[in-house]
Amino acid sequence: RIHLMAGRVPLGTDRAAVAGEMEATFIENLRYAADLLAQEGMIGLVEPINNRITDPRYFLNTPQQAAAILEKVGQPNLKLQLDLFHCQIMDGNLSRNLETYFPLIGHIQIAQVPGRHEPDSPGELNFPYIFELLESLGYTGYVGCEYAPKGDTREGLGWLRSYWESRGLQHGGTSK
């Protein structure tokens, strides 16, 4: 799996004025990439990145926009990389978005909102609920941790050990 980035609106340019051209270019590039990736048995991922905090110039900002583009491209080896941090900032409604876009999802990334720290840090998202929802939907892929640990990496993964223990699992996710 590889993240295929959408690009940024040029400096000093009105987003609305270039949106059509940027979308057409992105679609053309995605079709080209999908063909190359198919030869290698790879999946391409498109990730909406919020333009409110993280990157005001990034072209692809919502799962709705990503889904529409993926539909226009029409290649089965292109999927949605849904970063819940970005999705919450742009749209909220994570349960509905996960359910709606689940067939398109090829990878999930997580970070707490607003601080972009560990899932058990103070914030807006209820990760035990989100993980249960993903499990109920049948998600079997990886969950990428794209957050800035408040301390060191090992300490920053303490939430995962606690989560496994709450589910009756030992370190590493194996049953007791």
UniProtKB/TrEMBL annotation:
The keyword Isomerase applies. One of its GO terms (molecular function) is hydroxypyruvate isomerase activity. Gene3D superfamilies: Divalent-metal-dependent TIM barrel enzymes. The keyword Plastid does not apply. Keywords: Isomerase, Pyruvate. Residues 2-162 form the Xylose isomerase-like TIM barrel domain. The lineage of its organism: Eukaryota, Metazoa, Chordata, Craniata, Vertebrata. Pfam families: AP_endonuc_2 (PF01261). GO terms for biological process: glyoxylate metabolic process. This is Putative hydroxypyruvate isomerase. SUPFAM superfamilies: Xylose isomerase-like (SSF51658).
